[in-house]
Amino acid sequence: MKTLQKFICSLLSLSLLLSISNVAAANVESSFSGKIEVDSTSESIDLTNININVYQSIPREETATEWVTEYDETLAFTVHPNHDGVFTFTPPSSVFSLTVQMDTLPIGFGIDKHTELYYGINNDQNVFTLSQISDVELTSSSLYDYPNITILNEGNEEIYADFDFSPTYSQDVYNSNRVEISGAVKINGGIEFTPSTTVDLSGTDPFDRINQLFSVGIITEDEYLEKCMQMMEDDGTFDFCGVPLSSDVSTYGLETLPEEVQESIATLTSEVHNNYFKVHYNAKKTTKTSAEAVASFLLDMRSKSLSAGFKAPISDAGGNQINVYLSTEKCADPNPKFNPLTRGITYPTGSGSSVITIWNFSTLSSQEKETVAHEYFHTVQFAYQAGNTPSWFVEATAVWFAARYSGSIERAKGHFDKYFENCRQSVFNANLQYGAGVLPMAIDVAYGGPATIRNIYIRIGSIKPTNETSLESCITYGIQQYDKSGSFAEAFKKLGAYITLPKHFFQKTIPSGATWVNDYMFETTPSTAGGSKSVLLYSYGLQPYSFEAQRSDATFLSIVVGFNDKAKGNASVRVVTKTSSNVITPFGGDVPSNRYSTIIKFFANTPSHGSNNVTNAYVSPIYTGSSSCPVTITYSLSTVITS
Fold first, then answer.
1. CA-to-CA distance for 249 and 111, rounded, in angstroms?
2. Can you say how many angstroms the Cα of residue 27 is from the centroid of all Cα atoms in its chain?
3. DSSP letter string over 372-436?
4. Distance (Å, rounded) from C-alpha 355 to C-alpha 318?
5. Nearest Cα to Cα of residue 71 among 419, 559, 627
6. Total Cβ atoms within 10 A of residue 286
7. 357 Ramachandran zone, left/alpha/beta (phi>0; psi -120 to 50)
8. CA distances from 173 to 170, 176, 177, 222 (A)
9. Which residues have CB under 8 Å from 370's CB, separation 6+?
């Protein structure tokens, strides 16, 4: 968000006036007549240089149902209006759309709408109105959002034009909860406006607040970590766990642990053990019962990981017993990667062996089990000698293991929520690595369960990836042992649908007794008559939008997703619908021409059409290219005219 970002502001007002029982079939050979006219306040101008792109809407027959049809939108041809603004053409298909290319509008002018989808009886004419740009407004409700730019004419009506905008952010010196967003909005032809707006963070969750401030560069990384530590002191439910980088620890021997850590664990003079784990603790601060509970729980985690086919952990001291150190003190590791409130660190100690340290330990609560299970899986990862694997996947799969097998996901949910709020950023983002655990959960659901995660680690043990490219090849290899057509990119695309309804799609990865109802999506499209929103997706980024039926009469919900041209071959859309009878259906796929649309019939909040009545729709534009990509999603809710 610190670099210049160009957004094409689009309004795709989709008129869908047709009968449910007897939809009028369009005659492709009939002529479409349109007109671009100038409002009464403007002088006559030349309209002949305006480009109007006409798209053929090609239905995806393989996914069509009685109530949902998807379309690939392919550019068919471009037309130009005459001096009177009139343009005509023969539609390329019975369903088609057109876009008035905004960067070809006359200088200083905007248009009341620029894109329409034509279907059924409303497919033969339309009028677009140009008016002079008078003002620009800037609005934003969150620092996560790219600010909304609203262009206005002299009548204070919203119009659309091509523009560039680079926002700047400044914190109020008198009120740290207020952040001003400003910047120059440059309209085509060099016209410039300088709007501003203020975001008030006073009612925001404290952790969310510092994330927003960090996301726009108002606070530094050091300040961010300091504020996180302070917040965790106030709320002990959030946790950071992990492994040190392989460069942080020598390859052999317990003596290579940081001196401060050695001094701390030297005070743990009591121990309990079973055949595979030796738990060290301070009897003055931790009860023997608690230590035995940890040893027993680890034995259960070992049994479950072995049942899934993973390697057994390797002891650092020979034999079968993994050393586990339970400390009631704050984390003593001086590595800046960790902090005093880090709950667990697993250290590699040579040739695939490792030890577990658990900090801030009191008793083995359900949430503490998540931490212990998370750290246990790090010992499994080291058994594959996977210490150089990019950290996001190391942490993501440890979160997956704990979420699946520990019996609790209370701590994981906090990380998942953070990922949901920032999933338009790359899944490779180290700040999201715990929340990225939803990706191996999606792989688990879509590609054969834990065996596929195991196959990925078998490949990691062989290849020993040190960068994202080699890691991606390992993930693809593991997936293809189950599905030859699968890949890392395809798994990420499935995630676009899965995260919208985790209670349904992730159900079998959630332990018995645990709950996960993700009712809040960060980017929710309002259920008004129509609208358009834009977002910048990073490499392997996605953005879910939520639509909820607000009407009881029969309606059509129409959605169009447009990607920047450079997204070709890397753009996808995943959609989920839920009916009044709670039938959940995912669909969607790649977008070969960077433009996608779907029509969802019977979008209403009463069961007027029985099991076909769709009450919720979730749409996720997805981008897997190598750089960032602007994406626009536009929708229209139209009443169906019955005969």
1. 62
2. 41
3. HHHHHHHHHHHHTT-TTS-HHHHHHHHHHHHHHHSS--HHHHHHHHHHHHHTTS-TT-GGGTTGG
4. 12
5. 559
6. 21
7. beta
8. 9, 6, 10, 20
9. 239, 402, 403, 406, 408, 409, 410, 411, 412
Confidence of residue 593 (pLDDT cuts 50, 70, 90): confident
Contact 327, 357 (CB under 8 A): yes
Cα(262)–Cα(530) distance, integer angstroms: 62
Report the relative pairing of strands 32-38 and 125-139 from DSSP bridges.
parallel
Paired tokens of 419: 């990922």
Task: Decide if 161 contacts 111 (C-beta within 8 A).
Answer: yes
pLDDT digits (tens, 9 = 90+) for 594-604: 899 998 888 88
Structure tokens at 517: 């109802």
- For the four alpha carbons of 357, 360, 362 and 367, in that order, the dihedral sign comes to negative
- Average pLDDT of the chain, as a whole number: 84
SS3 content of the chain, % helix, strand, coil (to 5): 25, 30, 45
Q: Roughly what angle, to the nearest 10 degrees, separates helices 206-215 and 410-422?
A: 30
Burial class (CB in 10 A: 0-12, 13-18, 19+), 513: exposed
Residue type at 154 in one-letter notation: E
Task: Report pTM.
Answer: 0.81
pLDDT tens-digit series, residues 244-269:
655 444 444 455 788 999 999 999 99
Among candidates 223, 160, 178, which has minimal Cα distance to 534? 160
Residue 414 φ/ψ, nearest 5 degrees: -60, -40
